[in-house]
Design brief:
By secondary structure, this protein is mainly α. The chain has 15 helices and 6 strands. It is elongated, with a radius of gyration of 29 Å.
Length: 354
C-alpha cells in the first residue's frame, strides 16, 4: 500500500509497504512525481522486478559506468575515443558529487547541473556527445545489467550543437609541426603520420591499423579492411604518400605504425605544445586533406571514395575551400573567356578580308 504525504513546502514523501518486501520511501519535489514512483514500485513488487529497483537504489553510478566501460566499450570501433570520454564524464560527475550517487537516484536536475558545469569549458556539441554516453549507460543498465531505472537524459533540454569545426592546417603550419616533431625523438613516427594524414585524409584509427600486407606501392593503394563506418575501402596514394611509406621502412607484413590511436593524439598534443600554434587538433589534418582534394579538382564522388564519408552531406562539412584558389579559378575563367572572344574576333576579321 502506498502513502503520499507532504513534508515541507516543496517536498512530498512516497512510502510503499507490502508484505514480503522491505518498506520503501523516497522524497520528491512534486506530488505527481511521488505518485508515479509509488505506482512503479508497487507494480515492480507485483511482477517480480522489484529486485532491479532495489539494486538501482543501492548501486553507485560509478560502479555502473565502470561496468559499461569494461563490458560494452571494448566492443565498439571507437573504443579509444569512448575511453577518453568516460574519463572526462567521471571527472565531471565526481566534481558535482553525482558519481557516488546510486544510479536509481540520479535525476534530470543532476544532469542539468552537469550541463551548466560543462558549458563553462566546452561547446554544446561536446556536451551532447557526453550526454549520449551517459544515456547509453542508463540504457545498458536497464537492458543488460537488469537495473530498474528510467533514463533522465530524456527529460532534459540538451544544449544546441555548435557550428561544424572548419579549422585547416596550412603548409606553413605543417612545416612548423614537422619541425617540432623532428626534435622530439620519442614521437619520431609522428614525422610520417602527420603528413600522411594530410596527404591521404585517413582517420587516426585507420592510420594506426595500417598493415604492410595491405599496402601496394606498385599499384599505389592502401587497403582499409576495417574503418570507422564499418565499410572496407581502398585509398589511392599520391607519389608523396608512397614516399612517406618508403621512409617508414617497407616490410612484408605487420603493422606500419606500432602505436595506439590515443597515443597519436597525446603525441600530437605534446608536439603542438612545443610550437606557438593554437586551436589545432589531429582530426583537423583530415579536414585539411579533404579540402585540398576538392581544390585539386576532384569531384565529390571521387573525394567521397578516398575519405570514406558516409554521405555527401557529411562531406560538405569538410569542404571549406581556400578563397585564394577560388579567386584563381575565377580569374582563369575570365582569361579563357577573353581568349575565346579574341579568337572569335580574329575569325571575323579573316572572313572580312576574304
Amino acid at each position: 500500500m502506498a502513502t503520499i504525504r507532504k513534508r515541507g513546502q516543496y517536498q512530498w514523501q512516497a512510502m510503499v509497504r507490502k508484505s514480503g518486501f522491505p518498506q520503501q520511501s523516497k522524497t520528491f519535489e512534486t506530488k505527481i512525481e511521488a505518485s508515479k514512483w509509488a505506482d512503479a514500485t508497487e507494480e515492480a513488487m507485483r511482477n517480480d522486478s522489484f529486485e532491479g529497483i532495489l539494486k538501482a537504489e543501492n548501486t553507485p553510478f560509478e560502479e555502473v559506468i565502470d561496468r559499461y566501460r569494461d563490458e560494452v566499450t571494448p566492443q565498439k570501433k571507437g573504443a579509444d575515443r569512448e575511453y577518453s570520454r568516460i574519463r572526462v564524464v567521471k571527472r565531471t560527475l565526481d566534481a558535482l558529487d553525482i558519481l557516488d550517487k546510486a544510479i536509481g537516484k540520479i535525476t534530470a536536475d543532476d544532469l542539468t547541473d552537469y550541463i551548466d558545469y560543462r558549458e563553462e569549458e566546452v561547446t554544446g556539441t561536446t556536451i551532447r556527445h557526453e550526454l549520449e554516453l551517459i544515456s547509453g549507460v542508463f540504457t545498458k543498465a536497464r537492458k543488460r545489467f537488469k537495473l530498474k531505472v528510467d533514463n533522465p537524459v530524456r527529460d532534459i533540454e540538451k544544449p544546441k550543437a555548435g557550428a561544424p569545426r572548419n579549422r585547416r592546417c596550412s603548409s606553413i603550419e605543417q612545416r612548423i609541426l614537422l619541425t617540432a616533431a623532428s626534435k622530439y625523438g620519442k614521437d619520431e613516427m609522428m614525422e610520417i603520420i602527420i603528413p600522411l594524414a594530410i596527404e591521404t585524409a585517413m582517420r587516426r584509427g585507420e592510420i594506426v591499423k595500417l598493415r604492410w600486407e595491405h599496402i601496394d606501392l606498385e599499384e599505389g593503394t592502401a587497403y582499409l579492411p576495417d574503418t570507422k563506418n564499418g565499410d572496407q575501402r581502398t585509398v589511392p596514394l599520391s607519389p608523396f604518400a608512397m614516399r612517406l611509406f618508403g621512409q617508414s621502412g617497407v616490410k612484408e607484413s605487420g603493422r606500419v605504425f606500432p602505436i595506439r590511436a590515443d597515443s597519436v593524439t597525446k603525441a600530437f598534443s605534446r608536439i603542438r605544445e612545443k610550437t606557438e600554434l593554437e586551436n589545432i587538433r589531429f582530426h583537423d589534418l583530415r579536414h585539411e586533406a579533404t579540402s585540398r582534394l576538392f581544390e585539386k579538382g576532384l569531384s565529390a564522388t571521387e573525394v567521397k571514395m578516398i575519405t570514406g564519408h558516409k554521405s555527401y552531406q557529411m562531406l560538405d562539412r569538410y569542404t571549406h575551400l581556400n578563397a585564394r584558389h577560388i579567386v584563381e579559378k575565377l580569374a582563369m575563367t575570365d582569361e579563357l573567356e577573353r581568349l575565346r572572344k579574341d579568337v572569335k574576333r580574329q575569325r571575323s576579321n579573316i572572313r572580312l578580308v576574304a
